[in-house]
Amino acid sequence: DYFRFVVDLGDDAKSVAAAAGLDCALTAIVPLDSLQNARRAMELASILSSSACERIYLNFLAPDRVQQREPFQDQAALATAVHLIRLLSADQRVHVACTSHDVVLWLGAGAHDVSTGKYMNVRRFSPSRWMDEQAGGRNNSYWCDDRLLTLIRDQEVLRLDREGWFADYDFADNPASQAILDNLRAQTGDPWLRLSWIQYMRWFANTASSVTSADEAWAVLQNSVSAWRETQRLRILFVDPFNDGNHAVAWANAFSEGMGR
Asked: Is 138 left (phi over 0), alpha (psi -120 to 50) or beta?
């Protein structure tokens, strides 16, 4: 069994590290597709918490059918993932790596540490990071919307702007947002990839600092559901088919279910 193997490996590594005066964290990769059964959280937590390691570096692996930017929406699997973090965080310091907007779920569930990056393949755990680079790839600029909990394109930002979406926004805690918006409004065509990275990373840091309880996470998720309903009222459709707001509902329901177990 993979999880028993990583526990044995982690314990051996901890012994060697301790002799050298070093700390050691247990690393585990959990396929989200394996979490549809609610009992799986208890099974995995029982195995992983048996490790002598006091810290666990957790990666959730989404199935290949889910695009890199597409929010994972399997409510049953996400609820089990939330429950798993709750269980593990009672005995270990849990670090959930390779996260994106779903970080709200993990913070609310009790994760002590979270991490992300400017590139998409570190915002979601992806084996492609260790494969040969494919020719033809490119980085695109996306706006990180803290209410919709997703990435949207420039023309969608401008459409929201025309509807007064940003009228009550305070960009003081994320100045890159104002810089991007000024750039798009001016329609100069100036590239803003670097600004998009800064905006996203600042949003992530702000969220990691502000979401420190289940209630705070729930408030963010409820706000996202309401924001998506507002876009529907405004009859705004987004280019990417997965940007329809369904993930906000799935995440809120999964969080409520996972925290209630």
From this structure: beta
Structural tokens at position 229? 């309903």
Identity of the amino acid at 25: A
pTM above 0.70, yes or no: yes
Whole-angstrom distance, CA of residue 147 vs CA of residue 197:
18
Q: What are the tens digits of pLDDT across the range 109-148?
A: 999 999 998 877 667 777 665 555 554 456 789 999 999 9
Element at 7 (helix H, strand E): helix 2-19
Which string of DSSP letters, residue by residue, matches 160-218?
Answer: HHHTTTTTT--GGG-HHHHHHHHHHHHT-----HHHHHHHHHHHHHHHHHH--SHHHHH
CA distances to 9, 37, 76, 87, 91 from 46, rounded to whole Å, are 16, 15, 20, 9, 11
Q: How would you list the strands of the sheet with 25-31, edge to edge? A: 25-31, 55-61, 93-96, 113-114
Phi and psi at 164, nearest 5°, equal 80, 20
